[in-house]
């Protein structure tokens, strides 16, 4: 039995610059953090006396004789990639809903890659784990995804991730004990809209424009990462919150699918009730909205949004890790 624990992430600035279509020509950078909410994946060898050879429990309970018959594409394709011939039983449990902008698709891939590598007796470090997951999503799954989520989940912590035109990346960590980081955490509110979406489909609507009509918008998004880092270091946390609003306005210009009337109404009401800024997490279209709300205004703010799910959270240094391991080799 192998069990992995992998953190969800919140991305503040730079989303869009982590797509290879952009950073291989222009470079890129994002600021993000992992939080104390996790995906758990367990995997064990399935004895031959069962009628099925593979069982995967997620929102479905799949029992099949061939891995190729699994409906869950990432699991099916990763078993194929590792060429695992053993029978397997895999369970997936998440603290947060899927398709909600918290990087859940990539977090799952990181957790499963970690589990199956360890199942085969192959330990894997953060750099290798994130690189393999990026390749798997972009090449094996042929998904249009950026590269920040896999790195965030593999390394954990509050980071600035820089992408170079060579294809490499660097991770610069901020201490969670830093008073500015602590103050930022206290002033953030995470609300679930109840709207689910597929990031891949939204990314398809703007990815081909990164080199042309939307180039100036992405350049401005890249500048927000630099400004956000500077404000955090200087302790200008309220200005960091206001910058989230500026970044959100710029991000909406990338595609009409990024937002909708329901999200716009929530966002406008949030600003009216005391938020200095905010953003829809992930590619857009639904999921979680993150707001910067000064502590002294949060009580009335949350009272107004009592019909939405408020998810209290803390920044976390935890990375994808193996909680229990009994490998087959």
Task: Give a description of the structure.
- The chain is α+β, with helices and mostly antiparallel strands and 329 residues long.
- The longest helix has 20 residues, at 215-234.
- Helix 2 runs parallel beside helix 3 and helix 4 (126-140) packs antiparallel against helix 5 (148-155).
- It has 2 domains: 2-175 and 316-325, Ribosomal Protein S5, domain 2 (2-Layer Sandwich); 179-313, Alpha-Beta Plaits (2-Layer Sandwich), CATH 3.30.70.
- The strands form 2 sheets. Strands 1, 2, 3, 4, 5, 6, 7, 12 and 13 form a 9-stranded mixed β-sheet that branches.
- It has 11 helices and 13 strands.
- It is 38% helix and 24% strand.
Describe the secondary structure blueprint for this structure.
Elements: E1 2-13, H1 20-26, E2 28-45, E3 54-57, E4 61-64, H2 73-82, E5 88-94, H3 104-119, H4 126-140, H5 148-155, E6 158-163, E7 169-174, H6 179-186, E8 188-192, H7 199-204, H8 215-234, H9 237-252, H10 261-272, E9 277-280, E10 288-292, H11 298-304, E11 309-310, E12 315-316, E13 321-325
Parallel strand pairs: 3-5
Antiparallel strand pairs: 1-2, 1-13, 2-5, 2-6, 2-12, 3-4, 6-7, 8-10, 8-11, 9-10
Keywords for this structure?
2 domains, alpha+beta, about 325 residues, single chain, 13 strands
Radius of gyration: 20 Å
The biggest beta sheet reads:
9 strands, mixed
**Percentage of residues in helical conformation:** 25-40%
Principal-axes geometry comes out as globular
Tally of individual domains: 2
End-to-end separation in angstroms reads: 12 Å
Total of DSSP H or I helical runs spanning 4+ residues: 11
| Assigned CATH class of the largest domain | Alpha Beta
Name the CATH architecture of the largest domain: 2-Layer Sandwich
Determine the strand fraction and express it as a percent band. 15-25%
Quote the CATH topology of the largest domain.
Answer: Ribosomal Protein S5, domain 2
Low-confidence stretches: none
Strand pairing plus helix content: what structural class? alpha+beta
């Amino acid at each position: 039995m192998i069990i992995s624990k992998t953190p969800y992430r919140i991305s503040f600035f730079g989303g869009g610059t982590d797509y290879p279509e952009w950073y291989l020509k222009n470079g890129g950078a994002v600021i993000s953090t992992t939080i104390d909410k996790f995906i758990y994946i367990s995997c064990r060898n399935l004895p031959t006396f069962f009628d099925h050879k593979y069982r995967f429990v997620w929102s479905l309970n799949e029992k099949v004789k061939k891995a190729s018959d699994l409906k869950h594409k990432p699991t099916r394709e990763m078993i194929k990639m590792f060429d695992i011939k053993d029978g397997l039983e895999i369970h997936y449990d998440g603290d947060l809903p899927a398709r909600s902008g918290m990087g859940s698709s990539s977090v799952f891939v990181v957790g499963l890659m970690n589990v199956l590598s360890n199942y085969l007796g192959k330990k894997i470090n953060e750099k290798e784990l994130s690189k393999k997951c990026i390749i798997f999503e972009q090449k094996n799954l042929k998904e249009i995804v950026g590269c920040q989520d896999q790195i965030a989940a593999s390394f954990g912590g509050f980071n600035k991730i820089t992408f170079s035109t060579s294809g490499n990346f660097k991770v610069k960590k901020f201490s969670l004990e830093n008073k500015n980081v602590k103050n930022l955490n206290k002033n953030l509110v995470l609300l679930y809209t109840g709207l689910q979406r597929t990031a891949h489909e939204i990314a398809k609507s703007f990815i081909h424009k990164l080199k042309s009509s939307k180039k100036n918008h992405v350049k401005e998004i890249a500048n927000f990462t630099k400004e956000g880092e500077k404000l955090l270091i200087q302790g200008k946390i309220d200005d960091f919150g206001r910058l989230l609003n500026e970044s959100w306005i710029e991000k909406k210009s990338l595609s009409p699918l990024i937002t909708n009337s329901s999200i716009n109404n929530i966002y406008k009401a949030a600003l009216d009730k005391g938020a200095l800024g905010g953003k829809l997490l992930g590619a857009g279209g639904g999921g979680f909205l993150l707001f910067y709300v000064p502590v002294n205004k949060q009580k009335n703010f949350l009272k107004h949004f009592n019909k939405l799910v408020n998810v209290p959270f803390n920044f976390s240094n935890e990375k994808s890790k193996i909680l229990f391991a009994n490998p087959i080799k």
